Protein backbone atom coordinates (compact mmCIF):
# COMPACT_ATOMS: atom_id res chain seq x y z
CA UNK A 1 0.00 0.00 0.00
CA UNK A 2 2.80 2.36 0.91
CA UNK A 3 4.51 1.71 -2.42
CA UNK A 4 1.31 2.71 -4.24
CA UNK A 5 1.14 5.91 -2.22
CA UNK A 6 4.74 6.75 -3.03
CA UNK A 7 4.09 6.06 -6.70
CA UNK A 8 1.07 8.38 -6.62
CA UNK A 9 3.20 11.10 -4.99
CA UNK A 10 5.79 10.85 -7.74
CA UNK A 11 3.24 10.83 -10.57
CA UNK A 12 1.26 13.76 -9.17
CA UNK A 13 4.51 15.66 -8.71
CA UNK A 14 5.35 15.10 -12.39
CA UNK A 15 1.90 16.10 -13.66
CA UNK A 16 2.48 19.89 -13.98
CA UNK A 17 5.87 19.23 -15.63
CA UNK A 18 4.39 16.85 -18.21
CA UNK A 19 1.38 19.10 -18.91
CA UNK A 20 3.68 22.13 -19.29
CA UNK A 21 5.94 20.19 -21.63
CA UNK A 22 3.26 18.68 -23.87
CA UNK A 23 0.61 21.42 -24.12
CA UNK A 24 2.63 23.84 -26.35
CA UNK A 25 2.10 21.46 -29.28
CA UNK A 26 -1.59 22.44 -29.07
CA UNK A 27 -1.33 25.91 -27.50
CA UNK A 28 1.73 27.16 -29.41
CA UNK A 29 2.10 29.06 -32.67
CA UNK A 30 2.47 32.68 -33.69
CA UNK A 31 5.45 34.88 -32.88
CA UNK A 32 8.68 33.11 -31.99
CA UNK A 33 10.08 33.70 -28.50
CA UNK A 34 13.40 34.91 -29.97
CA UNK A 35 11.52 37.35 -32.27
CA UNK A 36 13.50 35.99 -35.21
CA UNK A 37 16.88 37.16 -33.89
CA UNK A 38 20.03 35.37 -35.04
CA UNK A 39 23.35 35.19 -33.21
CA UNK A 40 26.82 35.70 -34.75
CA UNK A 41 26.94 31.98 -35.66
CA UNK A 42 24.18 32.75 -38.18
CA UNK A 43 21.66 30.53 -36.37
CA UNK A 44 18.49 31.65 -34.61
CA UNK A 45 18.67 32.19 -30.83
CA UNK A 46 15.92 29.58 -30.29
CA UNK A 47 14.18 29.04 -33.64
CA UNK A 48 10.56 28.90 -34.79
CA UNK A 49 9.79 25.84 -32.63
CA UNK A 50 9.72 28.01 -29.50
CA UNK A 51 6.82 30.49 -29.58
CA UNK A 52 5.62 33.06 -27.05
CA UNK A 53 2.17 31.47 -26.99
CA UNK A 54 3.66 28.02 -26.41
CA UNK A 55 5.82 29.30 -23.57
CA UNK A 56 3.07 31.25 -21.82
CA UNK A 57 0.35 28.69 -22.56
CA UNK A 58 2.47 25.76 -21.40
CA UNK A 59 3.46 27.56 -18.20
CA UNK A 60 -0.19 28.42 -17.46
CA UNK A 61 -1.51 24.93 -18.27
CA UNK A 62 1.09 23.31 -16.02
CA UNK A 63 0.42 25.82 -13.25
CA UNK A 64 -3.31 25.06 -13.38
CA UNK A 65 -2.61 21.31 -13.27
CA UNK A 66 -0.29 21.73 -10.28
CA UNK A 67 -2.86 24.00 -8.60
CA UNK A 68 -5.61 21.41 -9.00
CA UNK A 69 -3.35 18.75 -7.47
CA UNK A 70 -2.52 21.11 -4.58
CA UNK A 71 -6.23 21.60 -3.83
CA UNK A 72 -6.92 17.95 -3.12
CA UNK A 73 -3.56 16.33 -2.42
CA UNK A 74 -0.66 17.53 -0.29
CA UNK A 75 2.58 16.15 -1.67
CA UNK A 76 5.34 15.21 0.79
CA UNK A 77 7.85 17.15 -1.30
CA UNK A 78 6.65 20.55 -0.12
CA UNK A 79 6.30 22.01 3.38
CA UNK A 80 2.69 23.20 2.94
CA UNK A 81 -0.13 23.72 0.46
CA UNK A 82 0.82 27.32 -0.33
CA UNK A 83 4.34 26.26 -1.30
CA UNK A 84 2.93 23.45 -3.39
CA UNK A 85 0.82 25.98 -5.33
CA UNK A 86 3.89 28.09 -6.00
CA UNK A 87 5.80 24.96 -6.95
CA UNK A 88 3.22 24.25 -9.67
CA UNK A 89 4.20 27.52 -11.30
CA UNK A 90 7.95 27.14 -10.67
CA UNK A 91 7.99 23.62 -12.12
CA UNK A 92 5.94 24.66 -15.17
CA UNK A 93 8.03 27.74 -15.85
CA UNK A 94 11.19 25.67 -15.28
CA UNK A 95 9.93 23.11 -17.80
CA UNK A 96 9.41 25.71 -20.53
CA UNK A 97 12.62 27.49 -19.61
CA UNK A 98 14.57 24.23 -19.74
CA UNK A 99 12.93 23.39 -23.08
CA UNK A 100 14.15 26.75 -24.45
CA UNK A 101 17.64 26.26 -23.01
CA UNK A 102 17.68 22.93 -24.86
CA UNK A 103 16.75 24.70 -28.13
CA UNK A 104 19.40 27.36 -27.49
CA UNK A 105 22.04 24.64 -27.19
CA UNK A 106 20.63 22.81 -30.23
CA UNK A 107 20.92 25.92 -32.39
CA UNK A 108 24.49 26.57 -31.20
CA UNK A 109 25.30 22.95 -32.12
CA UNK A 110 23.87 23.62 -35.60
CA UNK A 111 20.90 21.25 -35.14
CA UNK A 112 17.83 22.57 -36.99
CA UNK A 113 14.44 23.15 -35.31
CA UNK A 114 12.39 19.98 -35.11
CA UNK A 115 15.37 17.64 -35.52
CA UNK A 116 15.90 15.17 -32.66
CA UNK A 117 18.61 15.87 -30.09
CA UNK A 118 19.77 14.19 -26.87
CA UNK A 119 18.59 17.08 -24.70
CA UNK A 120 14.99 16.95 -26.02
CA UNK A 121 13.86 14.22 -23.65
CA UNK A 122 15.42 15.37 -20.40
CA UNK A 123 16.62 19.03 -20.33
CA UNK A 124 13.17 20.33 -19.33
CA UNK A 125 12.97 17.89 -16.41
CA UNK A 126 16.44 18.72 -15.09
CA UNK A 127 15.85 22.49 -15.20
CA UNK A 128 12.40 22.16 -13.60
CA UNK A 129 13.86 20.07 -10.75
CA UNK A 130 16.72 22.52 -10.24
CA UNK A 131 14.40 25.52 -10.16
CA UNK A 132 12.19 23.92 -7.52
CA UNK A 133 15.16 23.19 -5.23
CA UNK A 134 14.84 26.38 -3.12
CA UNK A 135 11.24 25.56 -2.15
CA UNK A 136 11.17 21.75 -2.22
CA UNK A 137 11.85 19.29 0.58
CA UNK A 138 15.33 17.74 0.02
CA UNK A 139 13.76 14.26 -0.02
CA UNK A 140 12.40 15.11 -3.48
CA UNK A 141 15.97 14.64 -4.69
CA UNK A 142 16.44 11.14 -3.25
CA UNK A 143 18.33 9.08 -5.81
CA UNK A 144 15.42 6.64 -6.15
CA UNK A 145 13.02 9.47 -6.99
CA UNK A 146 15.42 11.00 -9.52
CA UNK A 147 15.93 7.62 -11.17
CA UNK A 148 12.15 7.15 -11.39
CA UNK A 149 11.66 10.63 -12.90
CA UNK A 150 14.43 10.07 -15.45
CA UNK A 151 13.39 6.57 -16.53
CA UNK A 152 9.67 7.39 -16.78
CA UNK A 153 10.38 10.57 -18.73
CA UNK A 154 12.79 8.84 -21.12
CA UNK A 155 10.00 6.32 -21.84
CA UNK A 156 6.97 8.62 -21.87
CA UNK A 157 8.41 11.58 -23.77
CA UNK A 158 9.13 9.66 -27.01
CA UNK A 159 5.80 7.81 -26.66
CA UNK A 160 3.83 11.06 -26.28
CA UNK A 161 5.63 12.55 -29.29
CA UNK A 162 4.75 9.50 -31.40
CA UNK A 163 1.12 9.77 -30.27
CA UNK A 164 1.02 13.52 -31.00
CA UNK A 165 2.41 12.76 -34.47
CA UNK A 166 -0.20 10.05 -35.12
CA UNK A 167 -2.94 12.43 -33.91
CA UNK A 168 -1.75 14.99 -36.46
CA UNK A 169 -0.60 17.49 -33.83
CA UNK A 170 3.09 17.19 -34.58
CA UNK A 171 4.87 16.98 -37.94
CA UNK A 172 7.58 14.59 -36.76
CA UNK A 173 7.26 11.43 -34.60
CA UNK A 174 9.96 12.60 -32.09
N1 LIG B 1 6.04 24.81 -29.12
C1 LIG B 1 5.76 26.17 -29.05
N2 LIG B 1 6.36 26.95 -28.08
C2 LIG B 1 7.23 26.40 -27.20
C3 LIG B 1 7.53 25.02 -27.26
C4 LIG B 1 6.91 24.25 -28.24
O1 LIG B 1 4.98 26.69 -29.83
N3 LIG B 1 7.80 27.20 -26.27
C5 LIG B 1 5.36 24.01 -30.18
C6 LIG B 1 5.97 24.27 -31.56
O2 LIG B 1 4.94 24.18 -32.51
C7 LIG B 1 6.95 23.12 -31.71
C8 LIG B 1 6.18 21.98 -31.03
O3 LIG B 1 5.49 22.62 -29.94
O4 LIG B 1 7.28 22.84 -33.04
C9 LIG B 1 7.06 20.86 -30.55
O5 LIG B 1 7.96 21.31 -29.56
P1 LIG B 1 9.49 20.90 -29.56
O6 LIG B 1 9.66 19.52 -30.07
O7 LIG B 1 10.04 21.24 -28.24
O8 LIG B 1 10.12 21.95 -30.62
P2 LIG B 1 10.87 21.71 -32.01
O9 LIG B 1 9.97 22.17 -33.09
O10 LIG B 1 11.41 20.35 -32.06
O11 LIG B 1 12.07 22.77 -31.95
P3 LIG B 1 13.50 22.59 -31.25
O12 LIG B 1 14.38 21.90 -32.24
O13 LIG B 1 13.93 23.98 -30.97
O14 LIG B 1 13.31 21.81 -29.99
MG1 LIG C 1 11.25 18.58 -31.13
Question: Overview of this structure, please?
Answer:
The chain is mostly helical and 174 residues long. The protein has helices spanning 2-22, 24-27, 52-72, 81-108, 123-132, 143-166. It has one domain. The longest helix is centred in the middle third of the chain and has 28 residues, at 81-108. The radius of gyration is 16 Å and the shape is globular. The model has no long low-confidence stretch (mean pLDDT 97). The chain binds cytidine-5'-triphosphate (CTP) and magnesium ion. Magnesium ion binds at residues 114, 120.
Q: Outline of this structure?
A:
The chain has helices at 2-22, 24-27, 52-72, 81-108, 123-132, 143-166. With 174 residues, it is mostly helical. It has one domain.
Strand content: under 5%
Please tell me what the overall shape is: globular
Please report the total strand number as a whole number.
Answer: 0
The poorly predicted ranges are none
**Mean pLDDT, as a whole number?**
97
**What share of residues is helical?**
55-70%
Order of helices and strands: HHHHHH
* CA-CA gap between termini: 36 Å
Q: Which ligands does the model contain, each kind named once? A: cytidine-5'-triphosphate, magnesium ion
* SSE-based structural type: mainly alpha
What gyration radius follows from the Cα positions, in whole Å?
A: 16 Å
What would you call the quaternary organization? single chain
Helix count? 6
